[in-house]
Amino acid sequence: MGTSTSSPRSFSTTKVSTLPMSSSTAPSKEPNCEKIVKDNKECAKNVKTADTTDIEDLHQIAVKSGSNTYIDPSTGFMVFTELAHLKRGKCCGSMCRHCPYGWENVRTKNGTSTQTRKAKVQSGDVAMAKELIHKIQNTNVTTSGGDSKYKTNGLTSSSSPAPHTKSSPLKTQTGKGGRHGGRHTSKNVPYTRNGDRGTSQLLTGERRKKNDDSFEAMGTVDELCSIVGTVHAELLAVIEKEGDETMTFYGDLPDWLLDVMSRLFDVGSHVANPRRRREKDDIDIEEEETNDFTSDGVGGGFDPEHIDELEDWIDEITDELPELNSFVLPTGGKASAQLHVARTVCRRAERRTISLVEEGVCDPNALRYLNRLSDFFFTAARWTNYCEGREEIQYRRPYRGANQRGRVKINLDQK
Predict the structure, then answer these.
(1) Contact assessment for residue 208 and residue 200, using Cβ atoms and an 8 Å cutoff
(2) Residues paired with residue 409 on neighbouring β-strands, in sequence order
């Protein structure tokens, strides 16, 4: 949503900075909030500003100027405009302030629709959304003095629009970063400079410090995903070295790891799209323990079926391994050692997520998945040693009555 739920109509006089339109106006099939988050501060250098005392006027100025966001002066949050939602092509279900889809995908705790807002277009109607975007793009902005502003290359000018020529590409956008390109390329670059002061932006539009609980959780999940990618690359290297054209040296583990990385992206997207923190008065005593998060593909929740799938994978490879009744040293082959690193980072990601679940802004199923995932990494570490024909080093007493635990090597082929 990007704002608090209260939205007073009047605000003190504020300046609104506008943003350039996306080069692609058609709504994408999969909504991507990162693409529509813009740097208001940078764009303020290139566009005009207008004074306003009304929140709806503030929004209209931003939309007609081609902006995807504006700053709510009462909260300091960045709010998505109607234009941004039209580009997404469907309702995200977050009860956004300027949703043109009438909150079509917003659901109550029992799963029913809460559509109470008048819709301008049906969620998922890409053609109509594109038509509305086109209409907005061809609308001039009028200032309080009556002067018309024309959009030129996504920017706003108080003079007539200069004709576009092939000899003058979008040089005004060069070097801004992000989708505007860098100093030496017009292609999308990963830097935007928005976070140079230690803040970053959630998918809701809200900016927080980078050491906020949400970003700590997201960062740890991202770290974990990168480690899993390293393990996957190592498995492929061994498979290539062994000349295994059937890709069955490790069974289904390489494919499972690809799925795990995708699910970690799901967790990160969900944490980046937190719901409004609940107040005590908001919680119904009878429904206090009810999980009303919905897995919708845009960070609304986490599908519990993935947890069951992890348990099935653990059962499948455990059945091929000898019974385990002691601790295991985190060593063996390179892939096995890396999986143990993944296991410990996964535990940290789980710890970082607990506070978000307790605050009611994170789906408990995401926490359950991380808990089960560390068990999967442990079992997968044993499995890779087994597939590579390596011994397992257990930490236990070498014999009954021994005063000191030690290292005991076990042949994993002996079930």
Answers:
(1) yes
(2) 393
Residue range 222-241: average pLDDT?
Answer: 95
Task: Note whether 95 and 3 are within 8 A (CB).
Answer: no
pLDDT in tens, 20-54: 444 334 444 444 444 444 444 444 333 334 455 47
pLDDT tens digits, residue range 159-177? Answer: 444 444 444 444 444 577 8
Specify the amino acid at residue 151.
Answer: K
Total number of residues shown for the chain: 415
Give the whole-angstrom CA distance, residue 15 versus residue 260.
Answer: 45
pTM across the whole model: 0.59
CA distance readout (Å), 237 to 91, 157, 232, 248: 43, 56, 9, 13
Task: With CA atoms as reference, report the closest residue to 227 among 309, 350, 334.
Answer: 334
How does pLDDT run across 268-289, given as a tens digit for each residue?
999 998 886 655 555 444 444 4
